[in-house]
Amino acid sequence: MASLTSITLNPSYSSPLGSLASKHCQHNQNSCWLTAVGSVRSSSSTRQRFSSQGLRIRSAATKQAKTPAEEDWKTKRELLLQKKVRSVDVKEALRLQKENNFVILDVRPEAEFKEAHPPGAINVQIYRLIKEWTAWDIARRAAFAFFGIFAGTEENPDFISSVGSQLDKKAKIIVACASGGTMRPTQNLPEGQQSRSLIAAYLLVLNGYTNVFHLEGGLYEWFKEGLPSVAEEEEEE
Fold first, then answer.
1. What's the CA gap between 63 and 82, in Å, rounded?
2. Per-residue pLDDT tens over the stretch 62-102
3. pLDDT for res 86
4. Long-range contact list for 12-20, CB < 8 A, 24+ apart?
5. Residue 166: pLDDT band by 50, 70, 90 thresholds?
6. Of the candidates 66, 74, 156, 72, the residue with the CA atom closest to the CA atom of residue 107
7. Distance (Å, rounded) from C-alpha 87 to C-alpha 76?
8. Rounded mean pLDDT of 28-33?
């Protein structure tokens, strides 16, 4: 990933943004990048003015290379079907957990898991709060904030290793998230609908897990049906 090295303005060009960008550059290159880019994108005339009068961005933050989780849904779905990942409804999932030693892998954020989850489920979140403060991470935080989301998330890079520390690759796993998603085609969704649990299932089969199932309807349906659930505090007592 490229990172911001410097932004400079022609010394002969004087403007409020020029002094502001200079101040930001002296203290924080990341916020300098955001200020400059946000301003430069404001209009085509602004872009031309700064281009002609001396705004120089030597190196700007760019998006990291695409990860497997960011692969397009069509590719994910094809592999899931090829690997015979089967979707089960919530009642079937409960039966498999009780009678066949299936483990429910809850990939929701940790806070949601603590509020309520199926008894015996384990939690490895597939997405986590953005942790780093690179120029790219700050840009993503700003993008989330623009839409009123102040707890932006990113892919959890430790997802597979965390699962591996608790489950071996032959473990019988039912992957669950809040909504569930579906691989089943419908008139409106001919390729089904992607979800966090289906992304997680894709990553698992991609990394050699051989008994992966998917919870159709998600944990929303589990709780709606009144199936057993516990909070973390209850388990600790």
1. 31
2. 556 778 888 999 999 999 999 999 999 999 999 999 999 99
3. 96
4. 12/54, 13/53, 13/54
5. very high
6. 156
7. 15
8. 34
Q: Among all chains, which residue has been given the structure tokens 């419908």?
A: 186
What is the Cα–Cα distance from 21 to 38, expressed in whole angstroms?
Answer: 11
Which residues are bridge partners to 87 per DSSP?
Answer: 214
pLDDT for the residue 222: 97
Residue type, position 129, single letter: L
Range 142-180 burial, b when 16+ CB lie within 10 A, else e:
eeeeeeeeeebeebbeebbebbbeebeeebbbbbbbbbb
Q: Give pLDDT, residue 221.
A: 97
CA distances from 90 to 4, 101, 125, 220 (A): 48, 15, 20, 10
Q: Which of 87-91, 120-124, 139-143 has the lowest mean pLDDT?
A: 139-143
Asked if the model's pLDDT at residue 53 lies above 50, the reply is: no
176's enclosing H/E stretch is strand 173-176
DSSP lists the bridge partners of residue 109 as: none
- Residues marked as catalytic: 177
d(CA 55, CA 8): 6
- Token digits of residue 45: 């005339």
> In sequence order, what are the beta bridge partners of 233?
none
